[in-house]
Design goal:
Bound molecules: zinc ion
Number of domains: 4
Structural class: alpha/beta
Distance between the termini: 88 Å
Shape: elongated
Amino acid sequence: MSTSFLYHTSGLTGYQYLKTIYKNGQVYFYVRKNPGKLRCPDCDSHQLILKGTKTRMFNSLPIGKKQIILVVLIQRVRCKVCQSLKQIKLDFANPKKRYTRSFARYAQELSEHMTIQDVACHLNVSWDTVKEIQKAHLLKHFSKPRLTDLKQIAIDEISIGKRHRYLTVVLDLKTGAVVFVGDGKGSYSLKPFWKKLKRAKANIEAVAIDMSPAYIAAVRSNLPGVVIVFDHFHIIKLFNEKLTNLRRKLYHEITHYQQCEALKGIRWILLKNPENLDESKHEKERLQKALDLNKPLAIAYYLKEDLRQLWKQKNKQQAETVLVQRELDK
Ligand SMILES: [Zn+2]
């Protein structure tokens, strides 16, 4: 077997092929570094005294369904120049890994098309190994996202698990990519992000946040002059809470039996978008009845619908026209 075959199949440079052993359906290639290419790992000198070898095995790219194991005789050397006594460096695998870099690359490429379990089965390695390869890939390519080109971002918090642990997430609204994850919630968790943003000299145009005063203050002081956008979801959520409270208040205040009956069990109907009302459950009719009998509820309900319409407009000017039109209709 030639040196160039080893290079092209396993990414090994300067290695000698020693022998092949076939065992339990697996193929073992024995190799060692070409003695002429040995260098001191500390000072790169080639004036070395050989101090024995250690054998290590690595998963290499399979040939068809055949698993290929590289058995590498790793030379230990004493350097005559710097006196260090070490094993020579391996340039085809990452430290402490039992697979070659080309094997990891192949597993990663397969992972983009199948589940971890499928890849593990196909390559005859454990689920954990494939997961480890994926993690390393993600860490290498996505742990330091480029912030320089950021223009529009969204900031929101999410809760993790049942222990009320929070993460604050920053998204690039153009690509949808997560560009920062801060521990905890509120303005404190964003501190490292503002630093990174400053270093990257990003020119942010707009930030979408919920209406919490802490976020508003944090954005105002770190990105002065930037447009703050309250997103649709948070505003409608807030309005829905008001609507729910109003219904409850009315329910407890009114004494008229019919009005009271009409308000029963319509909480979720009030919050639904009208186009999603269930005809089979007569939701439309029940809503209409409740609104007809309770004027304050009807006003609040139609205000919500007006508010929703705002997000369907193409631009600010059109939204203003719609608002004015509604005002005139009343
Ligand atoms: Zn040395």
